[in-house]
Amino acid sequence: MHFLKYNLIGILNTLISLLVVWILYQLFSLNLILSNFLGFVAGAINSYLCNRIWNFKSQNKKRSEVIRFIIVFLIAYLVNLFVLKLCDNLLSDYFMKTLPTAILTWVKPGYIANLFANIAYVLVSYSLFRFWVFSPKNSKDN
Asked: Which of these, 82, 58, 54, 80, lies nearest to 69 by C-alpha position?
């Protein structure tokens, strides 16, 4: 049940993150890496609150849990960043040559790379959130 709830929360986080990235990167032409990071921060705030309260119903002390959450966020984000840069480099030339200009005005190749990077983030973050951050065993460690 946790994984189902996590994915529902993840869908909301992803929508928040992708919307922020789209607004900052696509509309305001902010740097892709900065746009991606700010999108993830917005999604992470929602993620922590929803997972703590609704999904895992955590009774852990907030301070140590928040520290663990930030550590996992940073690890998962670094994986995301690696996949983002790799996919952006691989896809940019391909999409610029194959996609019509009309499509490229709505979706830049970097945004497609962002979608792949989000998948990597979900796989890493769920495992670490479930078994380390919101684990009931951590409530006795605090």
From this structure: 58
